[in-house]
């Protein structure tokens, strides 16, 4: 006995052509009808086509129309040297030219060339009487005398004659009572047998021979002092030449030398010669080693209350 039935109908319609005119189609199939439409052809009407594709254009070529291009290139370009062309005007070129040594040509007149020879200490002699033997010397050598009196009267020179020259005083000044006095003098030898002659008021004498001095005027700064006491100080002078070319003579004299003899020359000085002691009187000569500067210098060899005298003489070339 059949109480019910059902039937399934499978329809296979022919392929449809889907035409879309704007919008989006919605296809809905009901009643269990399965529709397999044929592939549709999409036709767009209106709107604008949008393609999802990346386009890599070829590198563009740079074209400049007018103006001046400013091109920055990471490279240093050294152009060839340019030639200088001057059109009109006068060029000013910062150029220093060292000319070749020129020959010195004198037209008329007589050139004077001064050549200074260095000073030389030749020798010295000393005496405890009124005259002193001059050391061996040549014509043109400089002779300097220092003469000491333990009283205040500066010794005086003898009259010129024979081998005794006309001595030129450097310092010849009396001092005060209770003080000593010295005379200094010079002469440029005109013969090789010069003598001192006998000096008045002389107790001690020193004669020094030098060479290389200024022939016209050999004496620079000079001074002499008298006093009493232990410290016998030769005075400072204003140097005529402060370039170290001078020679400085420092004379110290005392009426009563302490301890029977002179102490060593001060630092920076050289002991040259001593006259005495005679009855405790004595005279000493030191020279300064460096003569770019000068200053007073002391020999602490006198005695308290006893007379002394001292002198400084600059010899120049």
UniProtKB/TrEMBL annotation:
Name listed for the protein in its UniProt record: Bacteriophage protein
Native species: Mycobacteroides chelonae
Superkingdom classification of source: Bacteria
């Amino acid at each position: 006995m059949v109480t019910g039935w059902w039937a399934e109908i499978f329809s296979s319609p022919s392929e449809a052509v889907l035409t879309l005119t704007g919008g989006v189609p919605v296809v809905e199939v009901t009643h269990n009808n399965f529709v397999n439409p044929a592939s549709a052809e999409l036709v767009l009407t209106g709107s604008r086509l949008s393609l999802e594709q990346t386009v890599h254009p070829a590198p563009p070529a740079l074209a400049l129309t007018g103006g001046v291009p400013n091109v920055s290139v990471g490279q240093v370009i050294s152009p060839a040297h340019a030639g200088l062309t001057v059109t009109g005007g006068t060029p000013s070129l910062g150029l220093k030219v060292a000319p070749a040594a020129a020959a010195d040509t004198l037209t008329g007149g007589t050139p004077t060339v001064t050549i200074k020879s260095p000073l030389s200490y030749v020798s010295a002699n000393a005496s405890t009487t009124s005259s002193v033997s001059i050391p061996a010397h040549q014509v043109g050598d400089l002779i300097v005398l220092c003469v000491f009196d333990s009283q205040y009267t500066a010794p005086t020179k003898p009259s010129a004659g024979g081998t005794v020259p006309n001595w030129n005083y450097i310092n010849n000044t009396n001092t005060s009572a209770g003080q000593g006095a010295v005379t200094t003098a010079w002469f440029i030898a005109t013969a090789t047998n010069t003598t001192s002659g006998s000096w008045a008021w002389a107790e001690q004498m020193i004669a020094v021979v030098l060479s290389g001095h200024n022939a016209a005027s050999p004496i620079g700064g000079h001074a002499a002092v008298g006093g009493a006491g232990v410290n016998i100080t030769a005075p400072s002078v204003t140097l005529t030449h402060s370039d170290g070319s001078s020679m400085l003579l420092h004379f110290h004299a005392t009426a009563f030398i302490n301890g029977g003899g002179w102490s060593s020359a001060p630092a920076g000085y050289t002991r040259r010669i001593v006259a005495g002691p005679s009855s405790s009187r004595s005279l000493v000569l030191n020279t300064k080693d460096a003569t770019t500067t000068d200053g007073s210098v002391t020999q602490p060899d006198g005695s308290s209350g006893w007379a002394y005298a001292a002198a400084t003489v600059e010899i120049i070339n």
